[in-house]
Each structure stands twice: as structure tokens, then as C-alpha cells.
Design brief:
187 residues, mainly beta, four-stranded antiparallel β-sheet
Length: 187
């Protein structure tokens, strides 16, 4: 089944029959969490409370899509940057001693990803790296997960590190195929 068919199918089951008339798009959503605790084992929550943060800390204003918008998540990326740096330029850091995390993703009150281990890869390891200078995990899903419009979503990431994660900021993004409201046609 194509990703576009999955988006249409999920939306039609929720009574949103206008999705085939919407504009298709590629979309990436992301959120950051500043780590202030000195604990080495933590659970971070992403996409919840995004209305209190602004760009570049997140590219969202709410953790639900507007009418006509949806996203079929085809993968996740995550990495770290130093909280002291105020811009995202050249700040994804390979110095953090976190090599893996346990990801859970929730849509509404349903957990749609359960205890998925995602790993950090560098150019010297197996897997994908965003650039030679940074170690960032890119995890592609075998089955896209559709976030329909008007339904809240959030993610948790459990991290364990040999060192304190204090003064680091963790970034989690979800990317894939989506839809945008297209009011140019009648539906």
C-alpha cells in the first residue's frame, strides 16, 4: 500500500473524506528539550507543550495538526546540541556519551510505537549519519505511522548516559509524507 493511500484510509475512517483533495507534501516536524537535570537516566517528552516554545526550539505551535493536515511518519532523527549555544548552526554534538535511546510515540491515547531502540551512528559505524562531523541517529520506519488532523501526539525518549546530560539539548524530529489544506478546490 502506498503512503498516500494510508493517509487517505486513516482520514476516511475518522470521517475526513476531503483528504484526497488536499495538497500532498513532504514534512518534517521537530521539537527540542533542554536537559537541566544531572541524572544519567532520564525520560524526555517531545511535542507536548510546544506552544510555550518558539523557533528554533520547535517548528510547531501546537501538537495537533489543523483540519486537512496530516503526516505519515516515515522516520525519526535525534541528536544533541549544547544549550549554551543560542543558534542551531554547527551545534549538533558528537561529544555526548549517549549511544541509544528507547522511543515511544503516542497519537491520541494510543501508543503506536512501543519501546523502539534507536541508535546513534557515525560515519565509521553501520547505519546513516547526517554529516561527517556529527553523530545523529536517523531511523526509518518500515511501516509509516499516520498522524491525522486534530489529534494530539507526543513522544517519549528514555536516555541513559555514562555522563551527566546537563546543559545539553536533545532534538527529536519526525519526517515523512503529509497533506496540507488546499482551499483552492471545492470539496
Amino acid at each position: 500500500m502506498k503512503v498516500s493511500q494510508q493517509i487517505v484510509g486513516v482520514n476516511q475512517r475518522l470521517g475526513n473524506t476531503a483528504v484526497p483533495n488536499m495538497q500532498g507534501t513532504t514534512r518534517m516536524i521537530y521539537d527540542t528539550v533542554a536537559i537541566t537535570s544531572t541524572a544519567t537516566d532520564q525520560v524526555l517528552t517531545f511535542f507536548s507543550g510546544v506552544s510555550s516554545r518558539t523557533y528554533p526550539a520547535t517548528n510547531l505551535s501546537t501538537n495537533r495538526f489543523e483540519v486537512g493536515e496530516s503526516l505519515a511518519i516515515q522516520g525519526f532523527t535525534w541528536g544533541f546540541f549544547t544549550t549554551a549555544t543560542t543558534t542551531l548552526n554547527n551545534t549538533i554534538s558528537a561529544s555526548v556519551q549517549v549511544r541509544s535511546g528507547i522511543l515511544n510515540f503516542y497519537i491520541g491515547n494510543q501508543r503506536v510505537i512501543k519501546d523502539l531502540e534507536i541508535m546513534v551512528y557515525s560515519r565509521f559505524n553501520m547505519g546513516e549519519a547526517i554529516s561527517e562531523a556529527s553523530e545523529t541517529a536517523v531511523f526509518r520506519l518500515e511501516t509509516p505511522i499516520v498522524i491525522p488532523p486534530q489529534v494530539e501526539y507526543y513522544a517519549t525518549l528514555r536516555l541513559s548516559s555514562a555522563n551527566s546530560l546537563n546543559t545539553q539539548t536533545c532534538l527529536l524530529s519526525a519526517f515523512g509524507t503529509g497533506t496540507l489544506l488546499n482551499t483552492k478546490s471545492s470539496f
